[in-house]
Amino acid sequence: MPANNGFSSFNCDDLQFPVLLSVPHAGRIYPLDLTDNLRLNPAQLVRLEDRYADRLAATAIKAGLPTLVAHYARAWIDLNRDSRDVDPAMVEGGFANSLGSAKMRGGLGLIPRRLMQYGDIWKRQLRREDIDHRIGSYHAPYHDLLEQLLSQIVARHGVAILVDLHSMPPLGAGGEMQPQIVIGDRFGQSAASVYSELLAARLNHLGVRVALNHPYPGDYILRRHGAQKRNIHALQIEIDRQLYLDADLREPSAEIGDVAAMVAELLFLLIEQARGASLPVAAE
Question: What is the distance between the terminal CA atoms of the chain, rounded to a whole angstrom?
Fold first, then answer.
């Protein structure tokens, strides 16, 4: 597979499984151009990271599942946003044809503009050519490779399932009633509901609190790559960081290996379903 220092690909030369894993917000590399323009303390940008979500893919990668893992920080460019979703106020001379999404207006567009509780991230506006470079060298290659791999998986297996892996902050008030994992399929638009329901059933069996689509139905990656008419299904898995990080939500806890093993188990359930095998959840 082609190399890109912004992300790594694993197990993508022999696509023996019909599932492809994507980890777009795992990046912890902050380029010098980014840090030189920071108004905030760099440590505050951790709030944008799906902190150590790459390690949640470790067991699946060892098992041979094809996987893309981002290395550049989300603050550099967000792989889960449309390349046109740029806040014009961030750019010298503006940005024509901006999508103007609600997330962009809230400060979380293609390049994040502000952080809740901290305010604006950047000291200076960005140049359009710098944004185009980030898109061309990182965002576009990531999505091009996803498309290529999904097409190859469909050609080999007849079906492809893209799983976009994320982590989420604790969902606030509600205590034990709040979900620990959210499965998103854009309310059935990006994947057949059987896949989401299968994962939810297994998580319930394991005693994990799970929700479907609320409050995270999935964003651009699911919208762009889910194509059920072509037998390409796209799901998002959001995992509460309390399950695998320390009390400060900054460093891995002893449970991270168990959570990674659970992620791999969910992916292999999808593989069995895609192959038409009997389902362990139904058999128990």
Answer: 40
Give me the phi and psi of 11, to 5 degrees please: 60, 35
Instruction: Read off the pLDDT of residues 79-107 as tens digits, 9 standing for 90 and up.
Output: 999 999 999 999 999 998 899 999 999 99
Torsion of CA 267, 270, 272, 274, to 10 degrees: -140
Nearest to 7 by CA among 25, 31, 34, 32: 25
| Beta strand segments in 90-169, E | 114-115, 119-120, 160-168
Q: Any residues with CB less than 8 A from the CB of 94 and at least 6 apart, and which?
A: 88
Domains and CATH numbers, the chain: 7-74+143-283 (3.40.630.40)
Write the DSSP symbol of residue 137.
I
What CA–CA distance (Å, rounded) separates 63 from 65?
6
Query: Which residues, given as ranges, of the chain have pLDDT below 50?
Result: 1-2, 277-284
* Residue with token string 């320390």: 246
Q: What is the pLDDT of residue 5?
A: 72
Distance CA(228)–CA(80), nearest Å, equals: 19
In order of 147, 173, 177, 253, the CA distances from 246 in angstroms are 36, 19, 21, 5
pLDDT tens-digit readout, 123-155: 999 999 999 999 999 999 999 999 999 999 999
Q: Which of 51, 43, 62 is nearest to 23 (CA)?
A: 51
- Please report where in the chains the tokens 């503009």 appear, as a residue: 113
